[in-house]
Design brief:
Elements: E1 4-13, E2 16-26, E3 31-35, H1 42-50, E4 57-62, E5 65-66, E6 77-80, H2 92-102, H3 107-121, H4 136-148, E7 154-158, H5 166-183, E8 186-191, H6 194-200, E9 203-208, E10 211-216, H7 218-223, H8 228-233, E11 240-250, E12 253-258, E13 263-267, E14 278-283, E15 288-291, E16 298-307, E17 311-319, E18 322-329, E19 339-344, E20 350-353
Parallel strand pairs: 3-8, 3-9, 6-7, 7-8
Antiparallel strand pairs: 1-2, 1-4, 4-5, 9-10, 11-12, 11-14, 12-13, 14-20, 15-19, 16-17, 16-19, 17-18
Helix pairs in contact: 2-3, 2-4, 3-4
Length: 362
């Protein structure tokens, strides 16, 4: 296990800056996920940590040791790539052994490590096969096994599940999470899939355009997003946003005038807002319910529904330019074109500055 610290890390390709002064500490034994949209710099950042990408400025520390000028092979890290990067002409056993043989490790020790990894990852019966004879999931296990046998200080995963089908991705997510619990090593995992991030991570770093927007535990990011980007990126389906103006505030009672004209009352306790402030009201799809017309706070026109048996998704709009998604338990029947009255769970409301996008929570 090892602690990773990044200090003012920067990277540019010519005049294009891709990493903008990132500061981050990953505690020993943590499973940290870098998540963000394509092109946000998460894979570049991972490769800088690994020593596969040069650093323009800033510092990378592993257990308080500055490793900027230490080669990738000597940093004590192991990386699992999206493409698996297996040697096609070698058997599974040879793929697992090759890196250790290059380190001149005794053959008995190599065999022990390979056999242990085979049992742990349930690939012991595949040792004589070559990669071309394996399924995608089996190849991924071999790629992970090649990292495991090195007994690294830190594991690095670069979108390792993106080539697998949906069902196998779910299964492999569980296997990697279980592997982390068994080994206890620090792991850094890159993905664009926020569901992977939420289900696997101890801590999540949400990246956008080469900067970390927020870093913390998955549920803290979900419950207390720092800005509209994090709020919209973490959680599936994404958070609903409605433009509004604070038309009145009496103690903790806020009256919000939505852009389409309706006024709703919400509990403003814990928010730094004043009358006439322009805000974005954020509410997640599962924090609303259909109410009686007299009790409803918003009128929503239904565009379509998805019935999944145990749950229902309703897609509608509060106004022409304000789409809204509801996620309700059970089987809820509404018709396209129907108008429904919707109430909000006040304790789950978020308010953001319209100008900056920052959370207005105190």
């Amino acid at each position: 296990m090892a602690t990773l610290a990044l200090k003012e890390l920067r990277k540019a390709y010519g005049s294009t800056k891709v990493i903008h002064g990132i500061d981050l500490v990953v505690d020993s034994g943590d499973f940290c996920v870098f998540v963000g949209p394509s092109g946000c710099g998460k894979s570049t950042l991972l490769r800088m940590i690994a020593g596969l990408e040069g650093i323009d400025s800033g510092e990378v520390y592993i257990d308080d040791e500055l490793v900027n000028n230490i080669t990738a092979a000597r940093r004590g890290l192991a990386m699992v790539f999206q493409s698996y990067a297996l040697y096609p002409h070698m058997s599974v056993r040879q793929n697992l052994s090759f890196g250790l043989e290059n380190l001149n490790m005794p053959k008995a020790d190599i065999a022990q490590r390979v056999d242990d990894a085979g049992r742990m990852l349930q690939i012991g019966e595949l040792m004589k096969r070559k990669p071309g004879q394996l399924s995608g999931g089996q190849r991924q296990r071999v790629a992970i096994g090649r990292a495991v046998v090195r007994e690294p200080r830190i594991f690095l995963f670069d979108e390792p599940l993106s080539n697998l089908d949906a069902e196998l991705r779910v299964a492999m997510r569980g296997e990697i999470a279980a592997l982390h619990k068994r080994l206890g090593n620090t792991m850094i995992y890159v993905t664009h899939d926020q569901v992977e991030a939420m289900t696997m991570a101890d801590k999540i770093a949400v990246l956008r355009q080469g900067r970390i927007e927020q870093y913390g535990r998955a549920l803290d990011l979900y419950n207390y997003p720092r800005n509209t980007f994090v709020a919209g990126f973490i959680g599936s389906p994404r958070m609903n946003f409605l433009d509004a103006v604070v038309s009145a505030r009496v103690a903790d009672n806020l009256t919000l005038k939505l852009v389409h004209g309706d006024e709703i009352s919400v509990n403003g306790a814990g928010f730094a807002v004043n009358t006439d402030d322009q805000v974005e009201l954020g509410i997640r799809a599962n924090h609303m319910q259909i109410s009686d017309a007299s009790a409803g706070q918003m009128q929503v026109k239904v565009n379509s529904t998805e019935q999944l048996g145990g749950e229902t998704y309703i897609y509608g709009e509060v106004s022409e330019h304000a789409p809204l998604t509801l996620h309700l338990p059970g089987q809820v029947y509404v018709q396209s074109g129907q108008s429904i009255s919707v109430s909000l769970a006040h304790k789950h409301i978020h308010l953001f500055s319209k100008a900056s996008g920052h959370s207005l929570r105190l």
